């Protein structure tokens, strides 16, 4: 995967040549969040043999444009997300079951995040960004920020602290030092890493098309996504017509990391 260059004087956000990725756990607030923000990168990972799993924190039960019951909406959105995930090589989708619009970064949610991370022990955890984006506030749905905040709080210190949620360690889910946190939907000033998804952009669109309950105008949605990815490809300098996804990459446990500092 291509990567963009860092400004002078900054630590490189991520080097695929040095940081080998074998397992990735991805969090989204709603079904379709990961497909908008990161499914091209996921498709590139799975094509390279990386194991990727999804966790969707809410059921998306407040989304849609028709008069279905809440139970019908939940069933539809779960099915749409499973189908979308399969198209980018993801066979396991965990549904946390929180209510759409009511997600909070509380200990009930954080404990589930810690359990999933400790169980999979991934090289990368990918989640939504916890900061509000004032340039495009639609990215900053309260559930989006709660997803990012819950995952970020869980990663440090709880995932690596054996005294956090001790019942998890007692059940065999031992503390684990996560190497990398990748956040999508970030404010532009936070974006420090871009992935060239030109070769898998068709897979990204195919995944997004599965969420038909959410997109009354599919051509307009696809044009918007293409334009966004073209802008990121240009920022990264990947070449004419290149398409990219952008992330705020955080080294959680780098070689020079000292706990508590």
Automatic annotation (TrEMBL):
Q: Pfam families from the entry? A: PIG-L
- Determine the domain of life of the protein's source: Bacteria
Keyword match Repeat: no
Query: Keywords for this entry?
Result: Zinc
Q: Could you identify this protein by its name?
A: PIG-L family deacetylase
Organism per entry: Paeniglutamicibacter antarcticus
